[in-house]
Write a structure and sequence with these properties.
This protein is about 65% helix and about 10% strand. It is mainly alpha-helical and about 240 residues long. A hairpin with a 2-residue loop joins β2 and β3. α2 runs antiparallel to α4 and α6 crosses α8. The longest helix has 29 residues. The model has no long low-confidence stretch (mean pLDDT about 90). It binds protoporphyrin IX containing FE. The site of protoporphyrin IX containing FE (HEM) has 19 residues, from α2, α8, α10 and α11.
Length: about 240
């Protein structure tokens, strides 16, 4: 009889309390930062404020593939002429975002939890492998999943990247918040317009991360989600 068959169900601690708190605080905070950022983005165009989505586009040179975002999106968001609401929320909640992020990184470093999060030498190879496996490709399915600890290679890369992106958002945000006082900083980031562009695309990166992350959490199932709420997951362990 193998372990799976003979095993007992046990509650095993997975996520420390501090991580769970900071993770869930980050969720509404990031949501407000993105929403208020979009209100600012809409307002940040030349009067008569008709084409805010002209500012950011995807294309090469004068050729434009698409512009962000369609009109219905702005109307749905009730974005027009709400720049002051956006600025107010953005400049208030950025403090919580910054303090929570710095506390999270400090906790990772002090507790040693960074070891389960930071990519290892094998992470890129494992990430490709896990992705092919998740795509249900027959040869990857035959090979099975690579051995993993708390997080697999793809998770290590994604989670570390999103933490770095948080830091980059703070830095680029500071460069466009105080371009005079922090002028050396703004220059270092390529100038005001460049820092604005970087700040915006980091936000799009968060949105991309969010969609994939929530999708993966949904696929991983209830036991995994619950562990980020309660700290414990139900595991099968060998009976004595
Ligand atoms: C708002 C943006 C979010 C960001 C930036 C984010 C980021 C992260 C990070 C960095 C981790 C690793 C935490 C650690 O162990 O130190 C994590 C884990 C996790 N997150 Fe999120 N998260 C977000 C939203 C969400 C949402 C909305 C859900 C639920 C639907 C969720 C569910 C989870 C779960 C269940 C884990 C644990 C995964 C595992 O144990 O395999 N997250 N998240």
């Amino acid at each position: 009889m193998n372990v799976e068959e003979s095993g007992q169900l046990k509650l095993v601690e997975k996520h420390p309390r501090a991580i769970r708190w900071m993770h869930w605080v980050n969720f509404p905070v990031l949501f407000i930062m993105i929403w208020s950022g979009l209100l600012i983005y809409w307002g940040d165009s030349i009067p008569p404020y008709q084409h805010p989505h002209e500012v950011y586009r995807v294309g090469i040179g004068s050729w434009t593939w698409f512009r962000l975002f369609p009109d219905w999106f702005w109307k749905l968001l009730n974005a027009p002429y709400q720049i002051t609401t956006g600025l107010g929320w953005h400049f208030l909640v950025m403090w919580i975002f910054g303090i929570n992020g710095i506390a999270y990184v400090a906790y990772l470093l002090i507790s040693g939890e960074w070891r389960v999060l930071w990519p290892q030498k094998s992470s890129v190879r494992d990430a490709v492998w896990v992705t092919l496996y998740d795509m249900h490709l027959p040869f990857a399915r035959r090979k099975g999943l690579p051995p993993q600890g708390k997080y697999n290679g793809a998770q290590r890369i994604a989670y570390s990247a999103v933490v770095l992106m948080g830091g980059a958002s703070l830095v680029t945000g500071l460069a466009i918040y105080k371009p005079t006082q922090a002028h050396w900083f703004t220059t270092l980031l390529g100038g005001y317009e460049m820092a604005r562009w970087e700040h915006f695309w980091l936000t799009m990166g968060f949105c991309g991360f969010f969609l994939v992350h929530v999708g993966q959490v949904a696929l991983a199932g209830w036991n995994n989600f619950r562990s980020m709420v309660s700290g414990y997951e139900v595991k099968k362990v060998a009976s004595d």
